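Our collaborator T.R. sent over the components below with a one-line note: 'Predict the complex.' Nothing else. No constraints on interfaces, no templates requested, no preferences about which chain binds where. So this is a plain run: every listed entity goes in together, and whatever single assembly comes back becomes the starting point for the next discussion.
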Amino acid sequence: MTRLKTLAACVAALAVSSPAFGQPGATGNAEVGSQKVQMCQGCHGIPGWRTAYPEVYRVPKIAGQHQAYLVKALQEYKSGARTHPSMRAIASSLSDSDMANIAAYYAQLGLRVAQ
Amino acid sequence: MRAWLLGVAAIAVLGANAACAADLEAAKKKVSEVCQACHGMDGNSQVPDYPKLAGQNQDYLAKALRDYKSGARKDPTMTGFAATLTPQDIDNLAAYFSSQPAVLQSRM
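Returned assembly:
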């Protein structure tokens, strides 16, 4: 009986905590996105980092950027509308919900740092 | 003779610097005419679909404008605007927006 109560408490806790993770998909889930940014950090996490190829310029700052714009940029890299080789390779591995989650993560990250 | 040559060289260098330097006042005028409707006068766009430009890296902004102008990057709105910009306009605008205070961070 105690075990059953514990189980019920766990189920209830799970049900309550789930909305805190937000909705996946279009709205994006920053928590989930934060698990996916390892491949972004090598360039976008280093202040003043420069691209090595195909043109030398500093990679854009993305923390605090609008979520909708970040999703659009990733979609354009995936479709080939934008052509940066590294970004094309990375974006082609992302699903729509990956993009929404990563964009949600970076959008809120800048706001959190700025406050 | 040597002093004279040095003087000429110094004037040439100073003149070249002045010619290359970004003109922020000219940029401000351009921004008020063209950019601000979407990106805001200070580059802190309030519209989710349009990127914040304030505080962005200067050379990235210049590259984006050059790419729109050349057609390497395509956007129905930006292609039209970038086509009208001279290389000096692009340098001015990139310097202007990168110098505006922003929430954009380069560290995660």
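Summary for T.R.: The first helix of chain A runs from residue 2 to 17.
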